[in-house]
Each structure stands twice: as C-alpha cells, then as structure tokens.
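Check the record.
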Amino acid sequence: MLYYVVMDDCSINHQIFINEISMFQNCSNIGIECLLITHIRWYLPSTAIQERNIMVCVLINQLFRPGTMKSLAIILALGLFAQSQAASVYVDRFLQQYNKLHDPANGYFSKWGIPYHSVETLMVEAPDHGHQTTSEAYSYWLWLEALHGKVTNNFSSFNDAWANMEQYIIPVHNSQTGNNYNPGKPATYSAELDYPSEYPSPMEFNVPVGSDPIYQELVSTYGSDDVYSMHWLLDVDNVYGFGNLPGSCELGPQADGPSYINTYQRGPQESVWRTIPQTTCDSFKFGGRNGFLDLFVGDNSYTQQWKYSNAPDADARAVQAAFWAYTWANENGKASDVAATVEKAGKLGDYLRYALFDKYFKRIGNCVGPYNCPGGQGKESAHYLISWYFAWGAALYGGWSWRIGDGAAHFGYQNPLAAYALSNVAAMRPKSATGASDWQTSLERQLEFYQYLQSAEGAFAGGATNTWNGRYDTPPSNLTANTFHGMFYDWEPVYHDPASNRWYGMQPWSVDRLAQYYYVSGDATAKALLDKWVKWIVSEIQFVDGTYKVPEWLEWTGIPPEVHVTVTRRSSDVGTASATARTLSYYAAKSGDNDVKEVAKKLLDLIWANYQTDKGVSVEEVVETYSRFNEEVYVPYNWEGHYPNGDVIQHGATFISLRSFYKNDPDWPKVEAHLAGGEAPKFTYHRFWAQSDVALAQGTYGVLFNE
C-alpha cells in the first residue's frame, strides 16, 4: 500500500514533505499488531534532533488509527529518524544554510531584498565595501533559489529573485535614455595604459573600428535600444551618496535606495586600492568641473552622460541558474511555473553576446597596431569566448551612444553550460536571428579554449587576448607561434595586481560549469579535460588534523602547449572548497568514479563540521592587504573634486581619504591598530557568494547521490 502525506499547516521552518511511505510487515515480535515504516524521503530544515523527532511522532500518530499506543509511535519515530538521517543529510544541510541566508537577523539582504556582497561592511576586495552588491551575488542568489525550488517543488522564490534583478541591477529604461547609436561606429578608440598615473587616456578618433553586427537584430527582436544586461556593481545603501537610483541621476546622499556606481577604469595595475569610485550617471554634480570623466578619458570637451559595465560571467551564471530551474521544474511537471522567467534568461543571453566580440569590433587574429588592424565586418570581430567585460553608454540628452566588447578572455569566465542552454534548450534559445547559432559556436570555441589552456598538470592557465596590453601592441615574439585563433596567450588577462589567475577560485568556478555541462551532455571532450583536472586537484587537496586545505594561490610558468602550475599557498576557504566539492560531485555522478565521490563527500563533511557560525559557515582569515588603506590613489596635479559627503579628490589622496566613512565602521579600530604597526586584522567574513557556494555544494551532492 502506498501513502502520500504532505503537512501543509506547518510553519515555513518546519515543513515536512513526505512521499513514498511504504508500510508492511507484522510486528508480532513486540507483542502488538502494527505496521513498520520502512522507507521515507523527507526534507526538514531544523537542526534540532529532538524537535525533528517530535514532529515525526506527530505525523505517525496521524497515520495510525485511534487507539494505537503512543509509545509505539515514538519507537517508530526514533527508528525512522535513524534510518532517514543519512538519506537526507546533504539536502538538509542545504536547507539549514538556506535558512541562515534568509534569516533577516543575519543581515544578508537589504530592506529592498537585495543581497549584500557580505554581511560585514568593512570589506575591500573586488567591491570596496561589504554593503555594495555585484551581479555575481545576484547570479548566486538565482542559483540558490533554483535549487530551493528543486528541493521544495516551489519555484516562486526563483521568479522573485529574477524580478528583483530586473528592478535594481539591470538598468531600467529611464536609466538608459538618449540612445542615439550608430552600429557602424560603435565607439571611439582610447588606449588602455599600464598604470593609473598615465591616465587620462586620449580619445583617438582616426583609429579604425568595426561594425556592431548584433545591434540591429536585437532592436528588431525586442523593439528597444535598451541593453538587457546587469551592471556589475551597486552601492546598495548609497554609502558614497551618488543617489543613482534606478531611473534617476545623482539624487545625492539623501536618496534612499540602491545606487549604480563604478570603480575600475585605469588599466591592469589599478587594484581596488588605487580606484576612484565614480558615478555611472555623470551630470557634473559631483567630482570636478567635468564630473569624473576627465580622470579617465582625455577629450576636447565633455558631455554629461551615463555608462554601465557588465561582468559577463555573472550574466552567464544567471542563465545557468535558469537552466537548472527549468530542468528541475520540468522534471516535476512545473515548467510553466518558470516559463516566463526562463524566456527572460534567453533574452539576457542574447545581449550577453556583446562579450563575444573584440572591444572595438576589430578583426580577430593577429590584430597588431591600432591603426593597422582593421575593423571587423559581420562576425569577423567575434572570438566567441566569454570575455572580461562589455560596456555601454550615451550622452544624457541624446547626440551619441557607444558600445564596446572586450578582446581579452579569461578561462575562469567561460561557461559551457550556459552556451549549451542558449543553443540547445528550446525554452531558453534567444529569439534573435543568430543568437542560438552564436552560442553554439561559442560552446565549441570554449571547449577548444580549455584544451588550449590546460597545463601539463591539469589546471587551466589564464587566457588569451586580441588586444595586447589593451592597445593592440606587438606581443613578445615567443607568443606569436602558438596562438588561439590568432589571439595571444596571456597568463594574467586584464588585471595584474594581483595577477588575475593567481587565485585558485577561478579553477573550480569555471571547471564546475564544465563539469555540469559534462553531466548534462556526456560530451567526450569535456570528460577528457575533466579527467586531467580532477586528477590534479585530488592530488593537491590535503586532509590533515580533522580538516582540509585546498589551493589558494597558483604560480604559472611556460606558454601553451607547455604550461606548468605550482600551488604556492593553501587555505581552508569554505567558498572555493565548496565549489571544488561540487565540481567533483558532478564529475563523479556522470563518470561513476566512486573515489572522486568520496573526496567530494569528505570535503563537504569537513566544511560542515569545522566552520559553523551563527550566520553561516566561515573560516577566520588574516587580511594582510588591509595595510593598503593608506596607499596613495593617483589623482593628476591641479585636479580637484569632491564626493557627495565632502571627501576631497586631489593629488596625494589615499584610499581612506576618499572613503572617510570607513572611520565610523565598527571594525575600523582593528584596521587602525594594524596601520599603527599592529598585527594584520582578523575577520570572519560572510560573503554572499561563498555562503551560497556552501549551500549549493551540499544540496547538489544530496540531489545527485540521493544522500
């Protein structure tokens, strides 16, 4: 006999979803007539074993007819708990972590429902404040809600997260006004320079640029000049005070809401410590007499304007999240619940194609000399790789608009699963004429890119560029013999402080997506790449003293096809370790490699057992880079401006002088003591992406292996 039981009247933290309760076997050996429950599959977020057992007792009392002894129900409940504990542990962990992330007391989300980059405010890494957020955080949120939908069979929170993304971080129509774009001349060339002190970089109007081959079909398909892509950075609490709320421009510090901002714009040596945060909508209200524009670009005159930058790996991860939401909803006959959102993911992927083109739409391959390398026609400017960024902007009051791609691609940004979804899943294919075929080409090109960059040991080297030094320079002679479709190998694409491929996290982030693609498709090329990478990482994970160490920093030597990697530093970082475990889980689930499965399981168990906090799962870290709070930020002589709070921007400014608000942060005394000669401060950070990675890795393992 088969029973289906769902308790709908429980509170949200105590829902039990139960199916397939098979009841048989006479229990005469204990002297009463009863039935033994032998199989149960359930999900319960609570961590309290006693509370969980009580709830099972309540359920069993409901199942048995009146008069059944309650002691029997308790015996059965305890036995049932012991039996089901192992079978539900990893999904249960996912739900526990999910609940921590969504507990308002823990501070992961703003009052507008936007995920912060971190719970803690004193945080300087890619963002320069913890209560900023990134398109990366949004994409992780979507993925988190997709898996929650799989577990609960309710995908409403996934749809809600996408709606929040549209409301706040995809620039709304009134934040993209004045479009007057000529796809035959997408942008005016301005060279990327090596150091911030070399800026502003002059506009060079006579450098040939190519034509934008996708603009017209996007306008024809969607009926709008707006770009449907995420801007990469939001000042969620309007700490800087620009007040660039969606649909608004420079409302100032009194504006209550998330504000678009930007930071990086001055070449590969501009680490976060050397940035001058700037408004995305520059009406010359703040900054200097030309707003912030003449810090970055040299021109004869300056026009009030808006501009946005996209981090393509985040938009691709959002597409990836939509793929899983659709797949899991479809498995349960609920595809219609996510259909509208999934269609929007196809649209997001359509515009994401701007990442597949050279910065100035120049021809791909041996593109040396800004004046000598011609502009591309049609798709000649497409490298079909997911590049570091793309950007778009316009004059505030019409007159001109511009769009650029990027000629530099990092292996860490590639996402073959997203490319597969956008080209092979009917519900997700872009509506434009060539969107799906472009992503099919991209899928093939990405796999080829992994092959080109794989080291002798198995890890993946940095990337390749069509624009050496960001200005179409002549590359070193040793890089010209073995190119990638005429693009030159670069071990540290785009950023050099620190080197963009030093951080190990790029490895599991990208290879996890490769493993997911392999899991879905069974692609033999993907498997061969994974075989080698998995062998390498399994040999580099250390299990010692009841915990683990994964790589943190990597050092690179050689050039393709003879690239070598060495691990120079390890850590117990929960985010990268979780991403590693999830990568191994997908690989093991498809290949059947039980040894790799056990490594993934051991990592997950040690992460969970060792690093619990009230707010999530985290490891204390020593933040040596905070010695740079007093570092000088280059501002040209005779340039002076102000932030909305009055902080002065002038020659001799420092990171902290441009961010005086940090001196009111509750954690500032730790940094101040370090700057006075004390030890480097210690922090236990709760980054949204890392906390999501913990949840996703635990839940994915549970889903893949039913454990």
Remarks:
- The domain at 624-683 is CATH 4.10.870.10 (Endo-1,4-beta-glucanase f; domain 3).
- The first strand starts at residue 2 and ends at 7.
- The chain is about 35% helix and 15% strand.
- Confidence is low (pLDDT under 50) at residues 1-87.
